[in-house]
Amino acid sequence: MPNIDGNEIINGKYGHLYDENGQEFQTCQEFEANVELNKEEINLPGQFLATHKVMGGTGSGSLTLLKIDSRLQKKIADNPTAKFVLRGVLADPTSRGQEAVMLRGVSFDSIPLMHFAVDSNVEVELDFTFDAFEYMQTI
Question: CA-to-CA distance for 45 and 81, rounded, in angstroms?
């Protein structure tokens, strides 16, 4: 069994999110992007279990920001059909390297106009879909 140094486990505290101009969302608390694979079930004669073929996929994700301004919400409100670019980076200095993923064709699912609760930091939560992704760096 391989010996793993606990310091090599990536700490999410070193995650960063950037927009299409390279400007960091400095208060990003959480970021997630996934590709769900669309599969077709195929039943073959003489085979008890069905096999599956990947036919395509759908990209989706979410991000949570602590609110310090309305920059992103205003961009979405000004052009709800706009497609954006996001770049997520994990750069823990004690890990084996840095990972970066670029999302293209990002389309937000809603326009968060305002939200607050007494005695709480204001957060902005946004769900989105995306049309393409590229690993810019891998560990």
Answer: 47
